[in-house]
Amino acid sequence: MPAVSTPQYSPATRSKRVRNIRSIRRGDHVEVRSGGHIYYRGEVRDTAPGLGTIWIREDDEGTRTAVSVEDFSIWKISGGAGR
Questions:
Q1: Sign of torsion, CA 77 80 82 83?
Q2: What is the pLDDT of residues 11-59, one digit of tens each?
Q3: I need a surface site. Which of 7, 16, 35, 76 has the fewest CB within 10 A?
Q4: How confident is the model at residue 9 (pLDDT cuts 50, 70, 90)?
Q5: Buried b vs exposed e over 26-62: b needs ≥16 C-beta within 10 Å?
Q6: What's the mean pLDDT in 69-82?
Q7: Element (H or E) spanning 72, and its range?
Q8: Cβ(56)–Cβ(2) under 8 Å?
């Protein structure tokens, strides 16, 4: 079970919700959220837009995780602690 946390950002950290996963590229840093909580945070390793799935390498444990955009919202992180 993933760790759940409430989004907390430094002033330099910005995030933007991703509406179309075709805009996500390998190497992008993202947060995976549901109900205002962060379930995963990491670097995008691969995408499958046709399946509505991305794979990330989690920041904390380095685990590779598949994420469905039907189950979660994806937020692209730029600057600050998210990078």
A1: positive
A2: 457 899 999 999 999 999 999 999 989 999 999 999 999 999 999 999 9
A3: 35
A4: very low
A5: eebbbbbbeeeebbbbbbbeebeeeeebbbbebeeee
A6: 83
A7: none
A8: no
